[in-house]
Write a structure and sequence with these properties.
Elements lengths: L2 H18 L3 H13 L2 H19 L7 H12 L1 H15 L2 H11 L2 H12 L1 H18 L2
Helix pairs in contact: 2-5, 2-6, 3-4, 3-7, 4-5
Length: about 140
Amino acid sequence: MTKKVLAAILLFAAAFAFAAEPTASHRAAAEEFLIARGTPEILERQCLLMADKQIAAAPELAEHRDKLLDFYRGAFGFAALKNDLVDIYAREFTEDELREMIRFCNTPVGKKLAAVNAKLVPELAELLERKVLEKAASMK
């Protein structure tokens, strides 16, 4: 292997490794977008829904609702998932794209979309559960 080929391979590998690591401002934009789109509220509604569903299935757990919520928030809450979500969005979108999406989220329609998405969590969960049960019944 010639030195030029080896140098080109090393340069390509270094560029790829550098591109794979987002800057601090890129990560900040990803986090700002997640907040602007209502992700913390959506995940909180999901945690509440999971705890309530578990209590509905096993009413004796009602006295432990706070502990159930702590568990779900620790596993699925925004604080628990934030770094992973930031990584995902920073990988999939450029910083400029994230800034553009943040601008949209800060418009009246963007704010309404975030609020409606959070509000619809229980309804969407119900829809998915109903569709799964329908599909399971059709497979008998």
